Amino acid sequence: xxxxxxxxxxxxxxxxxxxxxxxxxxxxxxxxxxxxxxxxxxxxxxxxxxxxxxxxxxxxxxxxxxxxxxxxxxxxxxxxxxxxxxxxxxxxxxxxxxxxxxxxxxxxxxxxxxxxxxxxxxxxxxxxxxxxxxxxxxxxxxxxxxxxxxxxxxxxxxxxxxxxxxxxxxxxxxxxxxxxxxxxxxxxxxxxxxxxxxxxxxxxxxxxxxxxxxxxxxxxxxxxxxxxxxxxxxxxxxxxxxxxxxxxxxxxxxxxxxxxxxxxxxxxxxxxxxxxxxxxxxxxxxxxxxxxxxxxxxxxxxxxxxxxxxxxxxxxxxxxxxxxxxxxxxxxxxxxxxxxxxxxxxxxxxxxxxxxxxxxxxxxxxxxxxxxxxxxx
Amino acid sequence: xxxxxxxxxxxxxxxxxxxxxxxxxxxxxxxxxxxxxxxxxxxxxxxxxxxxxxxxxxxxxxxxxxxxxxxxxxxxxxxxxxxxxxxxxxxxxxxxxxxxxxxxxxxxxxxxxxxxxxxxxxxxxxxxxxxxxxxxxxxxxxxxxxxxxxxxxxxxxxxxxxxxxxxxxxxxxxxxxxxxxxxxxxxxxxxxxxxxxxxxxxxxxxxxxxxxxxxxxxxxxxxxxxxxxxxxxxxxxxxxxxxxxxxxxxxxxxxxxxxxxxxxxxxxxxxxxxxxxxxxxxxxxxxxxxxxxxxxxxxxxxxxxxxxxxxxxxxxxxxxxxxxxxxxxxxxxxxxxxxx
Lengths: 377, 340
Description:
The complex is a heterodimer of chains A (377) and B (340). By secondary structure, chain A is of the alpha+beta class. Chain A has a domain at 99-302 and 357-376: Cytochrome-c3 Hydrogenase, chain B (Orthogonal Bundle), CATH 1.10.645.10. Chain A is built from 15 helices and 8 strands. Chain A has helices at 58-63, 67-74, 82-97, 103-131, 136-156, 176-201, 204-210, 218-224, 229-233, 240-243, 264-288, 341-347, 349-352, 358-367, 372-376, and strands at 18-22, 34-40, 43-50, 165-166, 169-170, 308-316, 319-327, 335-339. In chain A, strand 6 (308-316) and strand 7 (319-327) form a beta hairpin. Chain A is globular. Chain A starts with 17 loop residues before the first strand and ends with a helix. In chain B, 46% of the residues are buried. By secondary structure, chain B is mainly alpha-helical. Chain B is built from 14 helices and no strands. Chain B has helices at residues 2-5, 8-11, 13-47, 63-73, 84-101, 119-127, 129-140, 144-175, 180-186, 205-219, 231-234, 244-269, 282-301, 309-339. Chain B has one domain. Classes of the chains: A alpha+beta (377), B mainly alpha (340). Chain A binds chain B through residues 5, 18, 20, 26-28, 41-42, 129-136, 138-140, 143, 199-200, 203, 205-206, 208-209, 357-360, 362, and chain B through 44, 47-50, 144-145, 148, 151-152, 223-224, 226, 230-233, 235, 302-311.
């Protein structure tokens, strides 16, 4: 459903326009993203994202550090889903070094990654509502996220940038307190999701602001390489956990939520449904959690990858994150390429926001779930 | 020499009474504007499962004073290229109409600064200066966000003044007077005599109250209609360039306007100072009703997200104006039939 709104950008000859700089410091951009907006009144004629304000040369840093030294950097690219990013990096190294990963490690990686996905989606949920002018949900989301952070802090010692996965295994094993706590969290989270639905999803103002607003077509997703909730909100069931199965994901029964509409509401619903699916995965993984070591045997102290080109992709909270390592048989990689989802997701904003009203364009930007350090890395 | 022949008390207490009342109104508005911020923050805290301000004073009660000192010690910055006269004038233009309008609000049976026959008219006459103030503030600060906000405010307030005035006309028809004191006096007795529940005179009374309440939210630029401020879109809207007490006065005026709106709703629909059960003085009941309405305003702000701008205009032009027009026509027809 597309609401037809009178647009001064269609039909009539272009009138006087002006430029506003949305950012690098602006409450709607959640960080140092700058969007140069050419406006005709409140209509967006052209929105040009300007990136690079928080560029930290992560890829270049990868080229002059050993694999183990670069590992903590991966947590700092998308700080909201640090687990999955570390997963991609260790996955690429493990694939290159042909390490046999114990099943317990893979299961714990799945559990912690999914917990991290939920916490990331909760932050997005709160921040998105804040973009729409509702402040209270943010605090509720942080309340639930706090429980996840406490759980993860218990096993990793860190609350945001975990660096929990190590090449060949994990930093340490999970304890009973974590397993029990996670089970309790899953039990508590389901009624909370119902409350979220009552409080926000069914709110008439909220629905009016999202339904039919900011449609992104399948073609546009393909053209810009959008992944994650954005592409699934446009009706393409692309999820790395399904299309390039990795880790222990093939062992679990879960659904890839997709919505055909492609509007902001579809992307919202994908996020919410993914929380439900992540809870399902966590439950199954906890039930089947095998015993065993949490570190692969024979991980060399000085890691030199055989020459070649290795890639490992994961489904991060925001889409496909892939690490490509080119090795020339030295301790440090020849090249580390990080394929981050937010840059691709942002790049479609210019086309998608054309002719929209400013508040709708910002709602669209919010629904893309951007993390700025992930764009710039 | 005629005036000297009268006893002194006969002619000078009237000006004294006036001055006392005006000082009282000023103090009341000032205190409320400061402490409604505290109520808002405390309320927001409770809605968001956090304690709100706790540090300054008991339960953070000194927080408004700390805020006021902070705002007053800050430099008033007039941006380069801004129209400095209008820029400085705008906050005052926003604050003063609210203060003046409160002079006709009857807080108790004999507790009104001025009981004039066109009180209701006066409130709406002053009330429409608000739009001008925000527009001037936004326009003179030479900031693109502020100008967008100013344009929004004008179209929003124009759109919402129409249904509000239509509702008020309905009320004037029902009550037959524009004197607020008389309007309250007509609602004497138990609570079903309040205009809100007088369905035998006009079955659409609750609807008109709802329209009035929504328009009041929109007129005071409160969430979910806070287009003028819209933090996540326009930074701080028309107030973006204001610093220190310039912003402080805007902020206080927002609460003064909420106070006025809720006081007016109390007078028009909730029986003003009339007690529903016949005990305790009228002032008490007036304040209870008014603060209850203010609480609902805070409640709504922290529950709903912001509407879209065109959604807001659609609501006004497609729903509120037709509804209030129908209410106006129906109630005039009803009254014609009932009185005939």
